[in-house]
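Thread: Modeling a multi-component assembly for a lab meeting

Hi all, long-time lurker, first post. My supervisor asked me to bring a structural picture of a complex we are working on to next week's group meeting, and I have zero experience with this. I have the sequence lines for every component (337 residues in total). Could someone generate the structure of the whole assembly? Inputs are pasted exactly as I received them:
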Amino acid sequence: MWFFGRNKLQFSKRENVAIRLEAIGGQGANSAGKIIAEAAILGEHFTGNHFSSFGSEKRGTPVKSYVRFSTVRKPIRTASAIRTPDLLVIFHEFMMESHPEIFEGVGPHTDVLINSKKNPHEFQFPKGVHPRYVASVPATEIAVKTGSGLNTIMLGAIISFIPEITSEHLGQVIQSFFSKLSPEGKAANQIGFEKGLHSFKVKTAKPDQDRLEPSSVTFPHFGYVNAPIGGVITTPGNSVLKNHEASRKGTAPLLNRNECFHCGQCDLVCPDFCFVWRKNPDVGFGAELLGIDYQYCKGCQKCIEVCPVSALSLGKEEEIPQSEKNISWVKNEKSKN
Ligand code: SF4
Ligand code: SF4
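Re: Modeling a multi-component assembly
Sure thing. I ran the full set together rather than chain by chain. Output:
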């Protein structure tokens, strides 16, 4: 049985609670929403529901997970998306810039929890977005150190914002959810959960946080009036701005050019064509490997496994040379070839 205390936040209990989790495919937002809903509905016997909406079935696409429940057990008759959440959880701070519409419906009743190493006062919110409390938890960093799932760490932080659910019931659901994991996996997730519980920072939001452009936020108040046109893919590729960086879980392949002999095997297995080449008759098979386009790399590690000379190794996100994270050099090389 997982035992854990509450963080020192003292929020009063509500009659109706609506939670929206905003994430990238692969970060476990759907499972996290399911765990919260099971603890509320099966554990506390509240009425409620949970569902998620996904982009294409692919890592790197946006995922929204919704949980709503009534502590006074009113029948929940709606299964529509949650427009005005009481708690908004952002699984990667990168989404704040790339997808500002995730702030839809955030108001003075909303707490916002963000996976980030930043302090809460450093965040920039779109104009007109004034949450109640802003909190941050360095979940990616903790996940790399502990081997825990990102969603488990986020759950550790989330629980302090849902006083309606008791620690006992959440602990039971999480324990059952992870029952199929190996002993090491269970231990890692338990540590991750506890770290999430104790590592978040919180502050009251202030109005002076308006810094992003208001035009970048869409609030579809009237549905049929300004809802996006149906049946049309306006952003082909369906990943977040065609950028997979947020899918990496704190680690990435690192290329040691001194070891590489340009055999191309990494390129054959990479699902996202991350490797950048240029013609060079003096090396390998006439093409020279220049580097990795980290914009598209989702950290699957297939290239590391296949490299015959260990020219690729698994490194930490912060070990990626800044010069290579800047994708412009890659684009320039691509356009030359
Ligand atoms: S880890 Fe390697 S194979 Fe996987 S997406 Fe990144 S570059 Fe491609
Ligand atoms: S598989 Fe290894 S040696 Fe071959 S091109 Fe890729 S990094 Fe270089």
